[in-house]
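Practice problem: Phage holin family protein
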Amino acid sequence: MTYQSTYENGNGAETAAGERPKEGTAALLSSALEHASALIRGEINLAKAEVSENIDRATGALMGLAVGLVFAIVALNAFSAAFVSWLSAAFAIGPGLSSLIVGVVFGLIALALVMRGRSALKARNLAPTRTTDNVRKDSRTLKEATHVR
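Answer key — structure tokens:
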């Protein structure tokens, strides 16, 4: 005759010594949902932080763009007068043609600065890329974990 000791698990049921009580499907599902919920909350918090960081960066880019445009206008006024005078004197051309040449040169410089500022504000530069990467990784991990083997 063999004697096997028993103990009571948390649910009031007795199991043989050395055996672990098996969790029910409901408990496993509840645990999985809790973990998934925590994961989603974490990803949402990461997305909020990343979007906030990108908004701060965009604000800085906009401020730099605005200040650059103000300086471009002030510089355009000062340099254009000097450049028109120099072109007229150096090449013996009229002030009208000198003004046109100066306008084209400064226009090209302003265009280059505006295009640079616009490229810094493109949506792909402001998207929450780390969050997107984490969600993809989490999705792959969940698929692998739930894949029936």
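Discussion: Residues 24-133 form one domain. Students who identified this feature from the tokens alone can consider the problem solved.
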